[in-house]
Amino acid sequence: MMRQYELVERVRRYNPNTDEALLDRAYVYAMRAHGSQLRASGDPYFSHPLEVAAILTDLKLDDATIVAALLHDTIEDTSATKSEIERLFGMQIATLVEGLTKIKKLDLVSKQAKQAENLRKLLLAIADDVRVLLVKLADRLHNMRTLKWVPPEKRDRVAQETLDIYAPLAARMGMQDMREELEDLSFRQLSPEAYESIAVRVSELRQGNGAVVQEIERELKDELERRGIAAEVKGREKRPYSIWGKMERKAIGFEQLSDLYGFRVIVGSVEDCYRALGVIHTKWAIVPGRFKDYISTPKPNDYRSLHTTVVGPRRQRVEMQIRTRDMEEIAEYGIAAHALYKDASGAPGAMLSYESRAYAWLRKTIENLSQGLSPEEFLEHTKLELFHDQVFCFTPKGRLIALPRKATPIDFAYAVHTDVGNTAVGCKINGSIAPLVSELKNGDEVEIITSKAQTPPGAWETIAVTGKARAAVRRATRTAVRAQYAGLGRKIAERAFAKAGKVFSEDAVAKGTPRLARTAAEDVFAAVGRGEIKTEDLIRAVYPDWQPPRADDRTDRQINGEGWFELKRGHNLKFKIPEGAKPRDGEDAERLDAIPIRGINGELPVRFAPEGGAVPGDRIVGILTPGEGITIYPIQSPSLQSFEDAPERWLDVRWDVDELSEGRFPARIIVTARNAPGSLAQVAGAIGDRGGNIDGLQMRSRSADFHEMVIDIEVFDLRHLNTIMADLKAREVVAQVERVNG
């Protein structure tokens, strides 16, 4: 365990004016406060905050941050109080420690709403003082380094949480070294076999190519010196998680990777960066399409550098990063390198006027808290912002728009303004007409074509990449759907009033809204259309003395609040219900009202799309057909093309299925099998062995050697369906298996 004087020496190396007495008091106070507490490893608990402080000294942070790191668990885990810390160490440090205490018990892989609320707490805590985040990241890094002492059942949860939230946050703050270590430690826990396999291959490659790295370093440094450029050249190999990510993204094997080595060329000035680039491109052939200039266009986390890939000695592909010493500091330490809380002499507490782009992004994210997003939407928006790298595009007037990778003109339009996105009907990319679903590239000039008659289709939500665009599409879709429901409800009301023998008037309905707990007639009609208000209640709100006819006097009945169906007494109206679904109390067990879909009121009839259905795990949309109900389609269904011109009919829906639910859902597959005795038995056996239920089967000949089977099956979810299809493909008699989506 680090001694008191050792901690002071670590700080003094970069801050000669450090307040040694303050550090000593904090060291002794924290050690006494934690007393005999032990970590899971058996080490004294105080060793943890001490190691967190040591990590922050590597980032060259101010005294207040180091002290906050030493004290960050005292309020939560000891008898210490904020008032006592404020009395002993001052308001600034007490506020930092309290901010860390509020976010100590984050549980970011629990249910989504709770996860979102905890993420809100984290972002709010660091909004006023970024040092809270720096301590939290160092805290998580040390916990990951000691993860082996955590109970086995918690390790995966902590590792996944780190990979989902903390590593991307470190990246957004520009702290690349910390991000890479967090990713590797998480990867080692979550995929130990993959990690070990890649680590072994990298080690073998290192032994075989060690001379190549030294050769490139020597050649490059000598060449730059001959041209009068003083430079430091450092070679490094990519980390296992980075390698695995590239293999996953490009669907290639380890042997196909060509740029496992990277070199940093550190020079004295920006001018020397571009001169060094010319030297490198003169000496070795450039790989086309692999040059990026992050000096003229920095990343949102303030990262600046020139990137290029060349074909170096022995035909090895080599990635070069060229930057100045200041740029190197920011690349390594990110937001911590800006010294927000240090003056020129290194003394703490003198906050500079400069605010980094990374912290500006954080503040912008906090602003989304006031936009009325639901917890789930906020979480989705923030995660999307965390995970995506950037592309930079321009408006025709030259305004720079930063977007995530794989962003489309839809995202671009909403980044310019929500109204531009809502009215977008087309776009031009670099002067040429292009689809709105095109993937944007760095440097594209994008012009959005708008029309006031346009409303965004609900399907845009599945195309958009940014959280802002998705949230805006949802809002616009809800508005369009509400208008659709209101129109439907108005017609229902007119017919209901006519059948009751009462005069229908929108003014009269508006006067009756207080009795229905609504504020406007439009709200009432939308509620009637959704089935939230019964027409009988609406009529009574307008005509309080009216009484509905007795059930014995009625020759018809109202179904689901969306219209009157003429049915003779004694006739039954039946809907098929999926196996495992339960009807509401007092209702016919065959009525369809239990499909587990969120975003749909239970009063409207719901059915699955014909010829293929949908299963949990599919991304789905609902199509509203007035007078008929809602049909659920998987997003990949070709049938949805016929509704592209009717965006008001698209509904924002999601599955609401418990993982342990035993309900089954319809799917259709086509199996091409050899025309041999027993082939049908093998196909049916494979489905039965995996717990699938065959609901329908149609045989059709394809050739003398093969025939097709069109099979309707019932499965639990998409994973279950994929397992069945994989098992079928493994059967010797099966040549091909395809899923049908309408």
From TrEMBL:
A GO molecular-function descriptor: GTP diphosphokinase activity
Annotated TGS domain residues: 389-450
Entry EC no(s): 2.7.6.5
Pfam families according to UniProt: ACT_4, HD_4, RelA_AH_RIS, RelA_SpoT, TGS
Domain ACT intervals: 668-742
Keyword terms: GTP-binding, Nucleotide-binding, Transferase
Superkingdom per UniProt: Bacteria
SMART domains reported in the protein's UniProt record: HDc (SM00471), RelA_SpoT (SM00954)
Keyword Signal in annotation: no
InterPro entries (UniProt xref): ACT-like_dom_sf (IPR045865), ACT_dom (IPR002912), Beta-grasp_dom_sf (IPR012675), HD/PDEase_dom (IPR003607), HD_domain (IPR006674), NT_sf (IPR043519), RelA/Spo_fam (IPR004811), RelA/SpoT_AH_RIS (IPR045600)
Domain (HD): residue spans on this chain: 45-144
Reaction catalyzed: GTP + ATP = guanosine 3'-diphosphate 5'-triphosphate + AMP
Similarity annotation: Belongs to the relA/spoT family.
Function summary: In eubacteria ppGpp (guanosine 3'-diphosphate 5'-diphosphate) is a mediator of the stringent response that coordinates a variety of cellular activities in response to changes in nutritional abundance.
Protein name: GTP pyrophosphokinase rsh
Native source organism of the sequence: Xanthobacter oligotrophicus
